[in-house]
Write a structure and sequence with these properties.
The structure is a homodimer.
Chain A lengths: L5 E5 L8 H13 L4 E6 L1 H9 L2 H5 L1 E5 L10 H7 L4 H10 L5 E4 L3 H12 L9 E8 L2 E6 L9 H18 L6 E5 L10 H12 L5 E6 L1 H6 L4 E3 L2 H26 L3 H21 L7 E4 L4 E4 L6 H16 L2 H19 L8
Parallel strand pairs in A: 1-2, 1-4, 2-3, 4-11, 6-9, 7-8, 7-9
Antiparallel strand pairs in A: 5-6, 5-10, 10-11
Helix pairs in contact in A: 1-12, 4-6, 5-6, 7-8, 7-13
Chain lengths: ~350, ~350
């Protein structure tokens, strides 16, 4: 492993790549002056961008390739025909220990498929999951899975809970994060078999987290738990529903302040307070979906983000590496296995 | 059927019953002076409430019972032991043609189970669904199912699409509502078998709606379609996630206006504009979850609502009856069957 932290970037992924990627890398460089960058992409397009950023150039190496994974490529198609793509080569840099972490703003499905193939999953983790953090009434929480696995077994959910709690400890700095399984109202028969089995396992297994049982959709934004665990279908719908609702309320607010002369004047007075609110809820602050459970740190930036958003995704990735995220997951999985073996001893009912 | 519209009310259901129910009925009476009310509940508690509302008393009959379905009763338990409950008797009034519609703010699971047992489902509808409408960027939309059926077949989803579009035409007054199936991002393999089969059936079957295919979570608040169709698990999570996010933004707004003296002054100036926003997004406006697909009109009010919210639920129920909602669903189901038979003729591939 490189003594300095090395960041592999898919320089060609994202709606505004490569300009946005290079500008984002430059912001990340200012925050982490000890990092070096491997830029995977078209040299003829990257060189002119670096010419204008000499400080970044000094810590960057271009790894030339002209292949790019298309935004609408199916994962299987990207796997077959994208072996020389900027995305694939950037991921391989992590597998080959040339880089500590990879960030791409490209095609999510392709990134997940390639990362799984190249980096493999961590021992004991059957399926990787996509996680993100978001603002709540009580601060910030983490949710996973957000779309990598539409259907999940109880084992998958238990592993997501473990990875999510390690994430909350690593990135949010919580000592004993609270974890909840997303389910529907207590008046109904609660959820499917996977959910019920996962809940009973999480209750029975000693882990460094506080399992709070089932939570409901409204608990997500309330911040009832630090880690929201769910299957990829439900998590994807919930996250996008929350984003859509946030947009709706921002639009309502805009209309309200334009409704009358007095309201406009009111906005002028409250403007600096609203500036703080906008910063607090800025989607770029929460840019960066983490692919957890892989044998290397891989972060997906939103495809439509700008340089600041991309830099935030890079910084989350660096946080994960610096705090030994994957080593901690391996430790937890080992402890979990030990605890389970103990529980499976003859005479003790395994859960 | 009664020549005047008769409303059966579970007078004992809800956190603030029976006071809230009686006060709500009085508001509904003002809006629909031709309605009469059957109040199911404890006479000794209802009489004093009616004493203070002589106009309501004049159009009301108390049907005495002291049994009440507990808020935490399981559906099966309520079915067994709640035969003389205010909820059960109110539903039976619709089945016996004593009333045109029933409204309860009690236990949702019990209401659904009892309504299914007593009112049965409409011909061709395998499962009833819970629907509500909500504010969007473009006006108002309908979503179903919200929790009656955690897992759904393709047939269920197609029937929900049909019922939802009839609902949008009846209550929202739309001529040809747009319908979307809630799914996850286009980058993933899209959804499960039920979703894909339902989509191909909705594309192939001629119905008085415009099927727009798959939509995502962010499309809900955007108002991309008039009718959002989904299984009860996803719908329940999505609705509650949207509610939680709306609450979060309201709280952010409150904090923002309290952040400084200038911001407080700004609020005073914009106050009347914000009053309109509050009215627009008042949860009481959207109170009333409709149990669609039953052989009688049954509406669930939110348990924690007040008199105004309960009155809104009563008015939605009246709207459904006045506009012949169930007759329209029967017509559509008949047309759908005819269209399907035509498609199933030899030589034509059935969908």
């Amino acid at each position: 492993m490189n003594p300095r932290l090395t960041i592999a970037l898919d320089a060609m992924g994202g709606d505004h790549a490569p300009g946005m990627v290079i500008a984002g890398a430059d912001i990340a460089r200012e925050r982490y002056p000890k990092a070096t960058f491997l830029l995977f992409g078209d040299q003829s397009r990257l060189e002119p961008l670096l010419d204008r950023r000499q400080a970044l150039r000094a810590v960057s190496t271009i790894e030339h390739t002209t292949d790019v994974v298309a935004n609408d490529a199916k994962p299987s198609q990207a796997l077959r025909s994208g072996r020389r793509s900027s995305m694939r080569l950037a991921i391989e840099a992590v597998a080959n220990n040339q880089a500590n972490v990879v960030i791409s703003a490209g095609n999510t499905g392709a990134l997940m498929a390639m990362a799984k193939l190249v980096l493999k999953t961590l021992p004991g983790i059957h399926r990787p999951a996509i996680a993100t953090f978001f603002p709540t009434q009580r601060g910030e929480s983490v949710m996973l899975d957000l779309g990598a696995n539409a259907e999940c077994t109880a084992d998958n959910l238990v592993q997501f809970a473990l990875m999510g709690s390690v994430f909350a400890r690593t990135v949010l700095g919580l000592l004993e994060p609270t974890v909840g399984l997303l389910n529907i109202g207590s008046e109904e028969v609660k959820g499917n078999d996977s959910l019920r089995t996962a809940a009973s396992r999480l209750r029975a297994t000693p882990m460094p987290m506080h399992f709070k049982g089932f939570i409901e959709g409204n608990d997500i934004a309330a911040g009832t738990v630090d880690v929201v665990v769910t299957d990829g279908f439900t998590g994807n719908v919930a996250l996008k529903t929350a984003e859509g609702t946030a947009k709706l309320y921002t639009e309502f607010l805009r209309r309200t302040f334009r409704a009358s002369f007095m309201a406009k004047l009111g906005y002028l007075l409250a403007r600096s307070a609203f500036k703080k609110l906008r910063m607090r809820t800025d989607p770029r602050r929460y840019n960066g979906a983490m692919l957890l459970g892989l044998g290397g740190v891989c972060v997906k930036s939103h495809g439509g983000t700008d340089a600041l958003g991309f830099a935030n995704a890079v910084c989350v990735a660096i946080d994960l590496v610096v705090n030994g995220f994957n080593e901690r997951i391996k430790d937890e999985m080992h402890r979990l296995d030990t605890a389970r073996s103990a529980l499976s001893e003859p005479g003790v009912v395994a859960v």
